[in-house]
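Q: How would the structure tokens look for this protein?
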Amino acid sequence: MPDNPSRDNSDLGSMSHIRRGLMVLEQLATKSATAAEVGRLVNVNRSSALRILGDLVDAGYVARDDATKEFTIRPERFYGLIVNHPAHEQLIEKVGPLLKRLTGGTGEASLFAAPASGNMVYVQYQPSSEVLTLRERLGTVRPIHCSAVGRAYLSTFDDVALDEVLGTLSYSGGTERAAKGPLDLRQRVEESRLLGYALDIDETLVGASCVAAPLNNNGRCIGSIALSGPTSRMPKDRLVELGSFLIGEIANTF
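A: Here is the predicted structure in token form.
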């Protein structure tokens, strides 16, 4: 079916090419997509989506899989933009040793996750030395509504800002234990506020548990610090103990 140029022209007239490119990057940060899917996500036809994607591929920010025809973000290209920024260097200098202490003191994997388009992305990761463990990687994406890192981050929002965010989430992904809508998630976020940390027991993945606390830097929350592992080794009572330990270690670092 041919593209609809009239729809596309009106859309492009109201939004700059650069802004559409940024929207595409935000979408690809959560999952790979074809040109047609990208077009639907940012409300342009497939031809225009291909032009935007082609520019991003040429610039090295996006890669195309010839077999699946899907486009995916290249996170290493973005790391190169920020690693030399003074604020990032100062943060890494603190977070890296913090994660090593957390893993060293608990034996569990630790991580720093930052928000991105309704999800949380693993920015730093310290693997566990246990034989039975969760194998994660940098760039792992977790839905904000069902992950401990997501709820810990949301727990720092005021009520107005929280309601705005809750209304934009799709609530897709996660297990049957995940929050199913805004009211359910708001109740869980409020519980996390009271505790100072958030728990995820088989919500994101069956057999995986996590405890996370918000990370504040220069007066604002920039993400969450977490400990994660198999549910068999991290039942609720241990997660509660780890939550208190986590809060203390973050407070001693930042």
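The beta strands are 33-34, 62-64, 70-73, 109-116, 119-126, 141-143, 198-201, 208-217, 220-230.

The first strand starts at residue 33 and ends at 34.

Upvote if useful.
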